[in-house]
């Protein structure tokens, strides 16, 4: 579900994977792998991605929750 929420929030913001990667300080291919649930995401990168997506980490991680801005 994390991967789905990251992708949905990125699209909601209208930004590319490259833009998200720049905002989060990670590589664009890493964002692609996160969105396809290929990699295990560390807590540090969850925080980076949530900050870049302007949403709480808990919203990206919670079951049944919507990714809403903080």
How would you explain this protein's 3D organization?
The protein is an all-alpha fold and 70 residues long. The chain has a single domain, classed as lambda repressor-like DNA-binding domains (434 Repressor (Amino-terminal Domain), Orthogonal Bundle), CATH 1.10.260. Helices cover 61% and strands 0% of the residues. It contains five helices and no strands. The chain is globular and about 25 Å long.
Quick structural gist:
The protein is mainly alpha-helical and 70 residues long. 61% of the residues lie in helices and 0% in strands. It contains five helices and no strands.
Please indicate the percent range of residues in DSSP E strands (runs of 2 or more). under 5%
- Estimated structural class: mainly alpha
Report on the biggest sheet: none
Helix fraction, binned, reads 55-70%
Find the count of extended strands (DSSP E, 2+ residues). 0
Low-confidence stretches: none
Overall shape: globular
Number of domains: 1
CATH classification class: Mainly Alpha
CATH topology: 434 Repressor (Amino-terminal Domain)
Superfamily (CATH H level) name: lambda repressor-like DNA-binding domains
Based on the structure given, which CATH architecture is correct? Orthogonal Bundle
How confident is the prediction overall: mean pLDDT?
92
- What is the succession of H and E elements? HHHHH
Taking all Cα atoms into account, the compactness measure Rg is 10 Å
Span between termini: 19 Å
DSSP summary: helix tally: 5
